[in-house]
Amino acid sequence: MIDLKLPKPTRLEGIIVTIDGPAGSGKTSTAREVAGALDYRHLDSGSLYRAATFSLLRESINVKEWEHLTVSDLDLLNLQILPMDDKIIMSWDQKNISSEIRSAEVTEKVSYVASLPQVRKWLFETQQNLGLNGRLVADGRDMGEVVFPEAEVKIFLTASLEVRARRRLLEYIDPKSHDEMLDDEMKRINKRDLADQNRQHSPLVQAQDAIQVDTTKLTFHQQVKTLLGIIKDLTGIGS
Ligand code: C5P
């Protein structure tokens, strides 16, 4: 019998915490804050898929060609992903693209790009390398299940669709216009969730050993506190 369980790694610097969940569940902002509180590095894996999407769009590669690109083709993109201190800097053609990757155009295409197995393969090693020594809080869709199955703490964040849509709108729209835009935002988020849950490779699922935290009724501060409490209870790490 083949034992597929990975050996427990020896981490030099600290543990790995994974935070997965659907769009708008607060993963990235919570992960950033938790990483800051623990003095850990934060990996926002969604930003890597966004950066890949941005490059494909910017390099004017026809969308019909994307599924045929190989890992070697992807290596030729003009994209740089560099860990710098506790941040991960993404640039395209030497320019920092941290705000461009949040555009509506990228958001609309990113789930398709993330469904392509060669894109996932291409980004897999980069993500694993960032966790080699531990001391990492990684958020995304498949952090606990696929990229860091041996993580010491795995969290799965959820929240109602309406709350997630409201949070997303808050990031970029004047609150006065929320009500009229809410339906459309809920539809967009739901479409992305369905694409992420139903894709063949690394779909969004809760890892069996993940702890689910429903943030529908929690403030941001309570969310962060809850996660830090779980980490402390499970590992003794944090204050
Ligand atoms: O987290 P964010 O909304 O920025 O992620 C953008 C998209 O990247 C997601 O909708 C999903 O399709 C993809 N993604 C993924 N696996 C991850 C992180 C993000 O497929 N680990």
Brief synopsis:
48% of the residues lie in helices and 16% in strands. By secondary structure, it is of the alpha/beta class.
What does this structure look like?
The chain is of the alpha/beta class and 239 residues long. The chain has one domain: 3-Layer(aba) Sandwich (Rossmann fold). It is built from 10 helices and 8 strands. The strands form 2 sheets. Strands 2-6-1-7-8 form a 5-stranded parallel β-sheet. Helix 8 packs across helix 9. It is globular and about 50 Å long. The model has no long low-confidence stretch (mean pLDDT 91). The site of cytidine-5'-monophosphate has 15 residues, from helix 2, helix 5 and helix 9.
The CATH superfamily turns out to be P-loop containing nucleotide triphosphate hydrolases
Count of distinct strands? 8
Query: How far is the N terminus from the C terminus?
Result: 43 Å
Can you tell me the CATH class? Alpha Beta
Mean pLDDT comes to 91
Report the CATH architecture.
3-Layer(aba) Sandwich
The figure for the number of domains is 1
Main attributes of the structure:
Rossmann fold, single chain, binds cytidine-5'-monophosphate, alpha/beta, 5-stranded parallel sheet, 239 residues, 3-stranded antiparallel sheet
